[in-house]
Amino acid sequence: MTQHTSRLCKSYFTKKESDGVLHQMTWPPQSPDLNQIELVWDELDRRVKEKQPTSAQHMWELLLDCWKSIPSEAG
């Protein structure tokens, strides 16, 4: 069910669905497809784990390096 729960929104979506304009999709509320930062965190996690940090300081350095290396248009 959509997050838009006001009567006005529900009425609008119901009308558009019955007109065949909209089709409500079943989608998990926490889907990474809708939360792009989760894809970035996953990429950062994989890159840091590849380097196997040896200390907290080393991990921070790797995190910074990996963060800087992720292209802004990634995803």
TrEMBL record:
Mind telling me which InterPro entries this protein's record contains? RNaseH_sf, Tc1-like_DDE_dom
The segment(s) forming the Tc1-like transposase DDE domain are 4-53
A Pfam family that the UniProt record links to this protein: DDE_3
Residue ranges crossing the lipid bilayer per the database entry: none
Q: The organism sits in which domain of life?
A: Eukaryota
Question: In the record, what terms sit under GO molecular function?
Answer: nucleic acid binding
For this entry, the protein name equals Tc1-like transposase DDE domain-containing protein
